[in-house]
Amino acid sequence: MSRIGSFEGFQPVSLKQEGDDQPLETDQLSIEVGDADMDSAPRQISRQPSVTKSTLYPNPYHGPYISRKYFVTRPGAIETAMEDLKAHIAKTSEEKIQGFWLLTEIDHWNNEKERILLVTDKTLMICKYDFIMLSCVQLQHIPLTAVHRISLGKFAFPGMSLDKRQGDGLRIYWGSPEQQSLLSRWNPWSTEMPYATFTEHPVKYTSEQFLEICKLSGFTSKLVPAIQNALKSSSGSERGKGLMVLTEPILIETYMGLMSFIGNRNKLGYSLARGSIGF
After folding, report:
1. CB 255 within 8 A of CB 160
2. Is residue 24 a contact partner of residue 14, using CB atoms and an 8 Å limit?
C-alpha cells in the first residue's frame, strides 16, 4: 500500500543555476528586504543539487513490456509450435526438416500476416499458427520442385499508391502471376496467388533466439540450396529445371490501401494482446 509522506522539513530552493551571475527574481526580493534593514546580515540562499535525470525513450522492439504483447514471445510458445509441426510431419511423411523461421507474410493487398515457415528436403510449408490457443489454423504445402524463381529486394508500389511500406522483402514464385485470374488478383481474401511475399517479423530483436529465426537472410540461405537439391533429385518433369534468384524491386499493386492501413497499424495479422476490456 502506497502512502504520501509528510511535507514537514521541506525548504524553498532557488532555481538559480550554478555559475549564473544574474540574480533571479527571488534573489532580488531577498536583496531588497536586506536593504530595508542595513544592520542585518546578508541572507544566505540555500542551494540543493538536482536529483532528477532524463533518459531516452527505449526502442519499442527492445522494451520487455512491448515485446510481451506478441504472444509468440511468451515462454514456450514458439517451442510448442515447432513441436506441433514436427509431430505433423512425423505422422504424414518422413521428410527431413531443414529449419523453422518466424516471418511476416505480405499478401497482394499489403496486409501483414504472422507466419511460421518450415523447410524440409521436399516441401516448403507456410503455417498460420494461433499463438493464443497454441494450435495450427492453416498449413500450406508447396513442393520445392515447383518453385522456379525467388526475388529479393525493396518493396515497390505504384506511383499513385497511398499506403506504402519501406524495407526489404523476399518473394517466392511457384507459378506465373500473368496466368492468375483478374478476380483472384483483386480479391483481398484470395488464396490462389502463385507466389508468397515475406519480410522480417517485428520481434526479431527481442532475443537471440528470435534474432536467429526471424532473419530473412538466414531463411534464404537454407531455402535456395534446398530447392536446388530437390530439383537435382527430381525424376519427373521438373528434372533439369533451374532456379532463378534475382535482385529486383518487389511490386505490391495496391492504390488506396485502406484495409492494410487499418490492419497493419493495429497489428491485426498477429497474435497480440489487445488490452483489458472489463473493469
Report:
1. yes
2. yes
Contact 140, 126 (CB under 8 A): yes
Q: Please provide the average confidence, as pLDDT, over all residues in the chain.
A: 80
Beta pairing partners, 125:
118, 141
229-278: pLDDT as tens digits:
999 988 766 666 789 999 999 999 888 888 888 999 999 999 998 876 54
CB contact at 8 A, 169 and 249: no
Identify the pLDDT of residue 191.
Answer: 78
Q: How far apart are CA 32 and CA 36, in angstroms?
A: 7
Residue 181: alpha-carbon gap to chain centroid: 32
**Residue 220 in grid coordinates:** 534464404
Q: What distance in Å separates the CA atoms of residue 193 and residue 158, rounded to the nearest whole number?
A: 19
- In this prediction, residue 90 has a pLDDT band, given cuts at 50, 70 and 90, of very high
pTM: 0.74
d(CA 80, CA 250): 33
Cell of 95: 521428410
